[in-house]
# Entry
Amino acid sequence: MSVLTREQVLQAVAENRTLDMDLSGVDLSGADLRGARFFGTDLRGARLSRADISRTGFQDCDLRGADLSDTQWIRMNIQGLNMEGASLRGATIHMCMMQKARLAGADCTGARIGWSMGQESDFSGADLSGARLEKMVLSRAVFSGANLGRAVLDRVVFLEAVLDGLRLEATVLEKVMLRNCVLTGFSFAGMVLNQVQFDGCDLRKADFRQANLNMSNFSGADLGEADFERCQGQYVMFLGAKCPGTRFVNANLPQAIFNEATLEGADLSEANLVNGQFERTRCLATRFTSAKLHHANFSHAELQDCDFSKATLYMGRMHKAKTDGSRFDDAVTVLLRGTDEELAQAEDWTLPSSS
# Structure
């Protein structure tokens, strides 16, 4: 229990004294704490909702279970601060240093957190539903079991973050970086994923059905058995991605780039892949039945045992592509270009020996 009353705490603040004692459970809700100095203070279970904490210092404090709802954390250093299980409902955290901050199990519903550095911070089990995270660096942060349902994430970096069990129902991701994260089996179904960086991620068996993937990047990602049925987006990048058994049925992905990707056993039936790029792609036993492949480029691709039945390959290009065992039953191949002999000769040219 707190060794000081509310009035005594406010008197100490007014006298510019450092508060370094047990203040657990103290009620400071709505108080004017501007310029206060809390050093090594025990504030467990303290009530600070709506308190004015501008220019307030919280060094090495214990704020576990504290009520910090509707507070304004502006340009503050909260690195390593322990706020596990605290309530930050409706709070604003702006331009703060919050590396290694401990927010496990915290209630951050409706909070606004932005322009802050939060590397290696711990949000495991935290409730961030309806929150807005903007322009944040959360590299190697832990979000295991956290809830980001209905949240808006704008220009947030999750490089190598721990995201197992993260909930993302109806979450909006705008220009978010999830590089090198493990997202196996995650559901992104129906979500807006605009310009999201998934490069290098483990997305095996992930669900992207009906998601909006406009200009998102899956370069080098492992998408084995992932489901992209009826997803949509222009200029989506799958450069060098691993897509064995991946489903793109009825996907609307014009100008998609699959160069050097592996699509072995993938299903792209009825997909819109107009102007798609498949240079040097490995497509063994891949299904392209009834796909729209106008102007698609399959130069140097491995297309053995693929099914292009009823596909539209108008003005497509298959320069030096390997099509052994592939089917083109009822496919539209008007102006489909095969190997360009002059180009092939130029590609195979080598510098004469000087002997």
Observations:
- Residues 180 and 201 are 4 Å apart (CA to CA).
